[in-house]
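# nightly structure sweep
# worker-07 picked up a monomer target from the shared queue
# config: single-sequence mode, recycle default, output format = structure tokens
# input follows
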Amino acid sequence: ALARARAARDLDPDHPPALVELALVVLLAQQDLAEAESLLEQARAQAPDDLRVLLGLSIVVGSRRRYGESLELLDEAVTLGGERPASTALLTRAQHRLLADQVDPAGRDVERGLAVQEGHVEALFLRGVVRWRQAQRRQAREDWLQAYDANSPAFRKLLARWPDLAEQVRIRQSLRLDEHGIRSERVLHEVSDALRARLRDPPGEAL
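# output follows
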């Protein structure tokens, strides 16, 4: 994938989509933040109003803990959408605001994201974080449960990637999740279902 992405970039070194694609591959395959940032800056010089470029660059810059710069980029990304900005831009800005301890502004972004896309799993996860930090424990747990029940694999990925490890632990404890992000009640339920199925149809009965 990396070789293909570099070959595509080499065909047209100033083509923003090729630069963005290469930056993403470099980021995922090599975890090379410096090269990814350089590629995205090149893309931004060619296409300063490209949403993918702004979002990609904000994620890379945020990963380097330069939250002031990442939030400036995300402000531009949100402004591009006018009255109805992309939910991705709003939720990415909400996450970076949380990482920068801007809890109330993050909450406003999350609510706007939910208005664009009701029931969005990431939005519910982030609103849970916002409410937890605002000492609204019950509401936070309700948001996390709703997100988990809507799409548990997506919820587990969000939880595993959340940068604040102490907060990861608090969320797991609040929802009674095991180390794999699975609710203990569901584990017991699934095991009992499997045992009942085996009792109804023991191995070798069909023979």
